[in-house]
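Q: what sequence does this backbone want?
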């Protein structure tokens, strides 16, 4: 029960709306790491730095984009990047930000 209460609080803080959508709940649940699961997985540690960084950046930006409801402008503010640089970064990582806008 406590975890559910904390999840609702976190979603209200992140979203600001009084209404929480199912997509927001699913995104938060998917972003949580399982108890005892390491933050950095062994397969990332076996990769060269550049490749591991790309994997991390892709996963990070995809998750943040979900939390922003597919809004790249909001994502730019959230991650602290200029929007034009963020578009370039998303393209270079192969993150389809246009698809997230039409998946409603």
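A:
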């Amino acid at each position: 029960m406590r975890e559910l209460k904390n999840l609702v609080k976190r979603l209200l803080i992140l979203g600001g709306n009084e209404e929480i959508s199912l997509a927001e709940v699913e995104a938060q649940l998917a972003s949580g790491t399982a108890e005892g699961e390491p933050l950095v997985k062994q397969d990332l540690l076996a990769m060269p730095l550049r490749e591991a960084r790309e994997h991390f950046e892709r996963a990070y930006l995809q998750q943040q984009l979900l939390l922003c409801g597919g809004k790249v402008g909001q994502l730019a503010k959230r991650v602290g990047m200029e929007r034009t640089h963020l578009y370039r970064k998303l393209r270079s990582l192969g993150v389809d930000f246009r698809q997230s806008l039409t998946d409603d």
